[in-house]
């Protein structure tokens, strides 16, 4: 995304042209930015050749998954629906990991029937369910065990997953107990130690701590795992205040870890692959001026992008056409939904705006469309994929008839 002669472009196409043709709100993805992100992620960890399983919960669009599959990636899924979508996209079952704390019997059975790489289990009760299925099917099943390392990743509390008070994974005591109980099982292969400590992590230090905890528990368990699944959580720069994750230090720590252990590393990135490849195009419906605030009322709402309301997340908003007239007054960019939390951004100055102008909400590729809803009986937006000068609708705008 860049400006050419004051007009914002996605690849070779002006944002305003897309908005005129396809309407707003619309999610627009740059295919070449997506490909570039995948190449860069691989580059950071090139010499250790990890298996990269894209986090489908971050973006489950079928066409996006097909493009990701073409780049040789696998999938990390957390539901039967996501697993079906990953398989429909052509992703190799032996590159699919099934995570999550509450898999149903039906979901487990379906995953086992599809011969996926791993089911990462997070409780002894779930392992017992898998064992029941293995006995019915007379089949030995490959599983991972998720450890809760009790590490605070210093990210938002609502997206932290590695502390002892979080619902995810097993405590060290229970992890070791399960290894001891099932290491010689006739029904289960304990293939993987899995861990995931949170999302939007921008410091390498929590990852270093995580690797130390993993090393300690491997020694205590005296067990050799074929895979170590390090999860994902790598953050991006949503604004200038956010620092970049130092991938080099994280990579060095993993490489040092692998000197002592012959195992394959699995990553489950989502946000770092897809987030900054997309914009949400929205139109200014009205500008309501008060003494202190200009309320910029958009046609996009919290049902289209809930991250600011749900997580207090901050997404930059930029104009589709730049001008040099700066208005030094508080601007509140809000949606039309009957909720005070239906607000995207508050800034103390912005360029001069007019009603019916097109704006772009940035870095919305992850947890944007995948968290959208029909709240207020609003239809979901369209999704559009841009490849240089070509435009492809990859999800049609929902119609009211679909939901009423």
Distance between the termini: 36 Å
Q: Write out the CATH superfamily name of the largest domain.
A: Alanine racemase
Shape: elongated
Briefly note the structural class of the backbone: alpha/beta
Query: What proportion of the residues is helical, as a percent range?
Result: 25-40%
- Uncertain ranges: none
Number of domains: 2
CATH class of the largest domain: Alpha Beta
| Number of H- or I-type helical stretches | 12
Mean pLDDT: 94
Percentage beta strand = 25-35%
- Overall CATH architecture of the largest domain: Alpha-Beta Barrel
Number of strands: 22
Q: According to CATH, what is the topology of the largest domain?
A: TIM Barrel
Largest sheet at a glance? 9 strands, mixed
Roughly how many Å is the radius of gyration? 23 Å
Describe the protein's topology.
Layout: E1 2-4, E2 7-10, E3 13-14, H1 15-22, E4 26-30, H2 31-44, E5 51-55, H3 62-70, E6 74-77, H4 80-88, E7 96-98, H5 105-113, E8 118-121, H6 124-137, E9 141-146, H7 172-182, E10 188-194, H8 205-221, E11 227-229, H9 247-258, E12 264-267, H10 271-274, E13 278-289, E14 293-298, H11 307-311, E15 317-319, E16 326-327, E17 330-334, E18 343-347, E19 350-351, E20 358-362, E21 382-387, E22 390-395, H12 400-403
Parallel strand pairs: 4-21, 5-6, 5-12, 6-7, 7-8, 8-9, 9-10, 10-11, 11-12, 14-17
Antiparallel strand pairs: 1-2, 2-3, 4-13, 13-14, 13-20, 15-20, 16-19, 17-18, 21-22
